[in-house]
Design a protein that fits this description.
The protein is of the alpha+beta class. It has helices spanning 7-54, 57-63, 68-83, 115-118, 158-198, 203-219, 238-244, 268-276, 324-362, 366-391, 394-409, 429-448, 509-519, 544-547; strands at residues 87-91, 123-129, 132-142, 148-157, 223-228, 233-236, 280-286, 291-300, 313-322, 413-420, 455-462, 466-473, 523-527, 533-539. Strands 6-5-9-8-7 form a five-stranded antiparallel β-sheet, with helices on both faces. A five-stranded mixed β-sheet has the order 10-11-12-14-13, with helices on one face. β13 and β14 form a beta hairpin. α9 packs antiparallel against α10.
Length: 548
């Protein structure tokens, strides 16, 4: 049964037992102390009475008379009444009583110890006499020469002392009850608070839950990171550490020792999301080499029963999924689509030209048909030879040739200028297609939406140290205030009109270009020399023979 108790109940019972034991110990100690103090006070008071009587000349004078009781008995009774003593016995050195509360005891021997008093010492003892157990002090009556002429015993019965102690015990009992009451109330309030915090679970259940939680945290394939209200990453699993480039997390680490978000290697948009604490649903964030899908929600505590207070917010919990491979496949598919569209446009363009040549031949204008075909072949061959000689990559050449045909279909002139002979072999062709394909698509879209003359210029320079692409268009350019924003995922200056997917898919191309450039350790600058201009510089790959 004990194992089924919650932490709150266990703590309440433990605190209640502690208060009970503490009250019992305090009460016993107080009773003993009160009893000892009562006896000490009674002894001190009796000593004062006996000493005062022994120093009274009346007692010394009466002790030398033939009948001391005649003088001392009335005097002793008066002092007993005034000093609130149970008995005052004045006796001869041989124990014969001269005074006593009971007249029949006069002349009888005193019961008790007198030897120290006969030696001139005043002492106090607890002993039984004719009135029962009592606290008494015996003091000697001395003459001028120091001889003991009489003895004075002043005492109070134990029953009287115990009556005084009982009165004090009532006060002690009230104090003990007050301590017990407030201790119980404090234990109940603490138990109620713990019950609301721990949701009525016991320590074994919490230990089991923590074991489950830790196992789930480190076994899920999604990254999980917990951020408190102070902006500290108090917990994250191994997958989150891998996706975010963090060090291993210690489950037993104190929240105060957790690293701050400002000290972690997060990118701008991801850091802004974590620091804001706002809810997020399947948001895409690009890091240096990854595309991450992030969901974020507040970590809300339990709602107190029958309370109008809002539940406590302990921070935020974010889950992270790696979408890099999916986006890579999507990019490859988009690359194939781009090449397919380019080939389609080129095929359409060549079909138009072939129809013209066939028409000229049918009209008997063979020289004009031959001249048109020769010039078209020379133009295409020159563009192909220039691209192949500069970048040394057939796929790139095919991409540019296709984009040229596509631009021509849309009424845009694509001018290609190449220089250098170093080539781009060694660079990832998917990244190159992503960079150049998206830049040309955006440039053709911008030029097609602008005024005549509609023109796109591509400069390719393949040097020994770097490969540079410069794409310029004749469009309206980019707002200088939006230059930093156009590289962010989801930002687009294009209207969704004409896009069969609506706004979906917009604001992706340039973000992927930026990521690909960073992945190749390159740089990209944006300017507006009459239109938008994108300049990309990629470090030249190291030849394989140099690596060996």
């Amino acid at each position: 049964m004990f194992h089924s108790w919650s932490i709150a109940r266990r703590l309440f019972v433990a605190n209640l037992l502690f208060v009970l034991v503490l009250t019992a110990v305090f009460g016993a100690f107080s009773v003993v102390e009160a009893r000892d103090r009562a006896y000490d006070e009674a002894g001190g008071r009796m000593q004062a009475i006996a000493t005062s009587l022994a120093n009274n000349p009346l007692v010394l004078e009466a002790s030398s008379t033939a009948d001391p009781s005649a003088v001392l008995q009335p005097y002793a009774r008066e002092v007993m009444d005034d000093a609130d003593a149970d008995f005052i016995t004045i006796m001869a050195p041989d124990r014969t009583r001269w005074t006593h509360p009971r007249t029949e005891e006069l002349g009888k021997p005193y019961i008790g110890t007198i030897e120290p008093a006969l030696g001139g010492e005043t002492f106090t003892e607890v002993t039984a006499g004719t009135l029962g157990p009592s606290v008494r002090t015996i003091a000697p009556v001395k003459d001028a020469g120091g001889s003991v002429k009489a003895l004075v015993a002043a005492g109070i019965t134990v029953r009287t002392v115990d009556t005084d102690v009982a009165e004090r015990l009532g006060v002690i009992g009230v104090i003990a009850l007050v301590v017990l009451f407030f201790g119980s109330v404090a234990s109940w309030l603490l138990g109620r608070y713990l019950r609301s915090v721990t949701r009525g679970w016991g320590p074994e259940q919490l230990a089991q839950l923590f074991a489950y939680y830790e196992s789930v945290l480190h076994s899920v394939r999604e990254g999980v990171i917990l951020i408190d209200t102070r902006g500290k990453a108090v917990m994250y699993n191994d997958q989150a550490a891998e996706l975010l480039g963090l060090g291993p997390s210690d489950a037993d680490r104190s929240p105060d020792d957790a690293p701050k978000l400002a000290d972690l290697p997060f990118d701008g948009s991801l850091r802004a999301l974590f620091e804001s604490g706002r809810p997020a649903h399947d948001e895409i964030h690009l890091t240096g080499s990854r595309i991450l899908v992030v969901n974020q929600a507040p970590a809300v505590g339990p709602v107190p029963e029958r309370s109008r207070q809002k539940p406590a917010v302990y921070g935020t919990v974010a889950t992270i999924r790696d979408r890099t491979e999916i986006e890579s496949l999507g990019t490859e598919l988009q690359t194939m689509k781009t090449l397919s569209d380019a080939l389609r446009a080129q095929t359409h363009e060549h079909a138009n030209r072939l129809h013209m040549i066939v028409s000229l031949l049918e009209l008997g204008r063979t020289p004009q048909a031959l001249d048109f075909a020769t010039k078209d072949l020379e133009l295409s061959q020159q563009l192909t030879d220039d691209m192949v000689a500069s970048v040394d990559e057939p796929v790139m050449s095919a991409l540019v040739m296709g984009k040229a045909a596509e631009a021509h279909e849309r009424g845009v002139e694509l001018v290609v200028r190449t220089s250098g002979r170093s080539g781009v072999r060694g660079l990832e062709i998917q990244d190159l297609v992503t960079i150049l394909g998206n830049l040309l698509d955006n440039a053709i879209d911008a030029a097609a939406a602008g005024d005549f003359p509609r023109k796109v210029e591509l400069d390719v320079e393949a040097g020994p140290a770097a490969v540079e692409f410069t794409v310029r268009d004749s469009g309206s350019g980019i707002n200088p205030g939006s230059i930093d924003d156009v590289l962010q995922y989801g930002f687009s200056t294009k209207s969704p009109e004409g896009n069969p997917q609506g706004a979906h898919g917009r604001g992706v191309g340039l973000a992927l270009v930026r990521q690909a450039v960073e992945r190749l350790n390159g740089t990209m600058t944006i300017s507006n020399p009459g239109g938008a201009q994108f300049h990309v510089m990629l470090p030249a790959p190291v030849p394989e023979e140099e690596k060996a």
